[in-house]
Amino acid sequence: MTTTVPALTEAVYYILLSLLSPLHGYGIMQNVDDMSGGRVKLAAGTLYGALSTMLERDWIQALPEDKDSRKKEYVITDLGHSILQGEMLRLKELLANGERISGGIQR
Q1: What residues have CB less than 8 Å from 45, skipping those under 6 apart?
Q2: Is the pLDDT of residue 104 over 80?
Q3: Residue 76 CB contacts under 8 Å (≥ 6 apart), including other chains
Q4: What is the per-residue pLDDT across 19-40, written as a single tens digit (0 to 9) for each?
Q5: Interior CA angle at 69 toward 16 and 18, to 5°?
Q6: Taking residues 83-87, what's their average pLDDT?
Q7: pLDDT of residue 67
Q8: Around 61, how many Cα atoms within 13 Å sit in the side-chain half-sphere?
Q9: Please, are residues 25 and 43 in contact by the beta-carbon 8 Å criterion?
Q10: 71, 29 Cβ separation under 8 angstroms
Q11: pLDDT at position 63, please?
Q12: How many CB atoms neighbour CB 33 within 10 A?
């Protein structure tokens, strides 16, 4: 039986993209803000709730903490990378179907 993964929220998508390189929470929030041109702003509760869920699902992992730092860094796992790739394919399909059916944006 194949497990289907639901469509990712925009926040989760951007968090996974951010974690292609190790980052701490505040760095993720800044990166998402930069990638989205300021359109997507992650509140701390949203970010840490999403991180907790992704840790449970093994989409990301926490890196060993440096004893001199209070910042916990995270990075995407192989499973998380597969989830991210699947979402990118889903988004490409959505765009291709929309362009095919509507003829593209003509306004």
Answers
A1: none
A2: no
A3: 16, 19, 20, 59, 60, 84
A4: 999 999 999 999 999 999 999 9
A5: 15
A6: 96
A7: 72
A8: 7
A9: no
A10: no
A11: 94
A12: 15
Q: Say what the pLDDT of residue 1 is.
A: 47
What's the token pair of residue 43?
């509140």
Please, are residues 5 and 84 in contact by the beta-carbon 8 Å criterion? no
Q: Which two tokens stand for residue 11?
A: 């926040």
Question: Could you tell me which residues come within 8 angstroms of residue 18 by beta carbon, excluding any fewer than 6 positions away?
Answer: 27, 28, 31, 32, 35
Predicted local confidence at residue 106, as pLDDT:
63
Report d(CA 10, CA 47) in Å as an integer: 12
Mean pLDDT for all residues in the chain: 91
The CATH number, out of the four listed (3.40.50.2020, 3.30.360.10, 1.10.3300.10, 1.10.10.10), of the domain defined by the range 10-64+71-100: 1.10.10.10
Question: What CA–CA distance (Å, rounded) separates 59 from 47?
Answer: 14
